[in-house]
Design a protein that fits this description.
Blueprint lengths: L7 H16 L8 E2 L1 H8 L3 H14 L3 E2 L5 E2 L5 H25 L4 H15 L3 H17 L4 H22 L6 H16 L3 H28 L10
Antiparallel strand pairs: 1-3, 2-3
Helix pairs in contact: 1-3, 2-3, 4-6, 4-7, 4-8, 4-9, 5-6, 5-8, 6-7, 7-9, 8-9
Length: 229
C-alpha cells in the first residue's frame, strides 16, 4: 500500500494564495471551490488542492456544502457576534499574562507601526492584516500552544469578516490604531486590569461597528443575509 505524502511547501503556497483571494473577494462569497477547479486554476495536483481546501476549511475561510464542495461563506450578524464572543476570553487571558510580565512582544509593536502606516495611507486591506497580526502576536507571546491553537480557529474567520464588511463601509483607521496602542501601553505599564479594559474596548467597538456596517450594507442590498447554500 502506497501513501502519497503532501508537498508541504507547495501546499503552503497554494493555501496562502487562496486565502488572499478569498479575503480580497477576488474569490467572492458564494463561490464554490472544487478540487478540480483549484487544481486547474493554480496548475497543481488534486491532492495538493484538497490539502489547501482542507486547511482553509479548518480556518473557517471555507465551509463544506451538502456535496462536500467548499464554499466561501457570507458571514452573518450572528457570526460577527459569536466570533468576538469567542475571542474575548482567549485574548483577555493573553493580555493579563503579558501585563504581569510588563512584556510587549516585538511582533506586536511592529504590527502597530504597520497599522499606523496603513492608516496614514487609508489602506484598509493592509490595516486589517496588521490588526490581525497584532492580536495573533499577543496570544503567541504567552507561550501557550493550546491557547494559540484555540485563537487560530477564530482569527481566519475574523479576518474574512472584517474584509467582507469593510468592503462596503468606511472605518476610522486612525482611531482604531489608537485603541490598539492603548492595549500595548497598558501591557508595557504592567497593568493587567487596564490591559483587559483596553482590549475589551477594542473588541466591543470593532464588533459593534461591523454589525452596524453589515446591517447598513444589507439594507442597501450589497450583501446577502446569512450563508449561501
Amino acid at each position: 500500500m502506497s501513501i502519497e505524502l503532501e508537498n508541504t511547501s507547495l501546499t503552503d503556497s497554494l493555501t496562502t494564495a487562496l486565502r488572499k483571494q478569498i479575503i480580497t473577494s477576488e474569490i467572492p462569497p458564494g463561490e464554490k471551490l472544487s478540487e478540480i477547479w483549484v487544481a486547474h486554476r493554480f496548475t497543481v495536483a488534486r491532492p495538493t488542492a484538497k490539502a489547501a481546501l482542507d486547511r482553509l476549511t479548518n480556518e473557517g475561510l471555507l465551509r463544506r456544502g451538502p456535496r462536500r464542495t467548499a464554499v466561501v461563506p457570507q458571514l452573518s450578524a450572528d457570526d460577527v457576534s459569536d466570533l468576538y464572543f469567542a475571542r474575548e476570553p482567549i485574548e483577555s487571558r493573553a493580555v493579563v499574562t503579558l501585563a504581569r510580565r510588563a512584556e510587549v512582544p516585538g511582533d506586536a509593536d511592529r504590527s502597530l507601526v504597520l497599522m499606523r502606516m496603513a492608516a496614514d495611507r487609508n489602506q484598509h486591506g493592509e490595516h486589517t492584516e496588521a490588526d490581525i497580526s497584532l492580536h495573533r502576536a499577543l496570544v503567541a507571546a504567552t507561550g501557550s500552544k493550546r491557547l494559540r491553537r484555540m485563537h487560530e480557529t477564530v482569527m481566519g474567520e475574523t479576518q474574512l469578516c472584517i474584509a467582507q464588511v469593510r468592503a462596503h463601509a468606511g472605518v476610522d483607521l486612525m482611531a482604531l490604531t489608537d485603541r490598539h496602542a492603548a492595549i500595548l501601553d497598558a501591557i508595557r505599564g504592567g497593568n493587567p486590569d487596564e490591559a483587559v479594559t483596553a482590549l475589551l474596548t477594542d473588541l466591543n467597538n470593532c464588533r459593534d461597528t461591523l454589525l452596524s456596517d453589515l446591517r447598513a450594507a444589507q439594507r442597501r442590498g450589497e450583501v446577502a443575509v446569512g450563508f449561501p447554500s
